[in-house]
Write a structure and sequence with these properties.
By secondary structure, the protein is α+β, with helices and mostly antiparallel strands. It contains 4 helices and 18 strands. The radius of gyration is 34 Å and the shape is elongated.
Amino acid sequence: MKELKEIRDDEIRVIGESTPPKPQGWKWLLLLLAGLVVGLLVWHFWPVKPQPPVVDPEPGVFEPSKPVVEQPAVKLPLAKAEETGKPFVEMADTVINDIPMRLYLPHQVSLSLHLGAIDRKDPGIIFTAQAADIRADNGGVVGAFVLKGEPKAWGLSKKGYCAIINDTVTVGVADNSPLFEEATETGGYFFRQFPLVDNGKLVENEQKGKSVRRALCVRNGELFTVETFTAESFHDFAQALVDLGVDNAIYLVGANAYGWATDAEGQRHEFGDSNPKTSNKWRNINYLVMRGK
């Protein structure tokens, strides 16, 4: 037998294989726990950009509510001083941006609000349309609402407003308008709605869907309302009002909301759902009302 040290040039010697020792199971467990702790610490202390508070809008029966940027208000008289004759509503049909619409231009009227079912036999009402939306959760009025100096609802989810104080109407956009308190102190009226046009500029409301739309508008110091004959988006409706030359406008409840206008011959023209059972089921249904001066 050859000595171990005797190796030819074409031979190799294998002394033994060396393999790394396998770590024990508890060491792997410690490594896993350490990684978990480090991950939790990073997640907990990692800086997060603060998010703005979420405003929960008042849910409406007809349209949801979204906040908008505050804008200044515009005041104007309810009727032109040079107007004479009996009160009536002049109706004019037009098409703006392929949107057919009707303008209701009142003459010799005063403006107020009404809460509850409207008296459809009242001949003194020259024009009426639903003003504020109804809350879908509790049936109350959406937004602040003042009736003859008595606050009936509070809310700021809709920034557009109409104030009627001492026979003067103010159409504007604001968060906390002092006219709410002034209407309360002077026996006036106040309600909130979506703003559509402010100083001739479109106001976006981010509302979805299409419907028959209505608005309370001001153009060159003249107060009137507008109704579409077709279902339109908020954006397209507001843009049509801008192109019509409207200076300021706030929304009035659209869709099938009931109302009417009385022409110069005393004929009443109704719009919306004329079934009294539909509107009378809402205890806080409310209307913008125009009567002869």
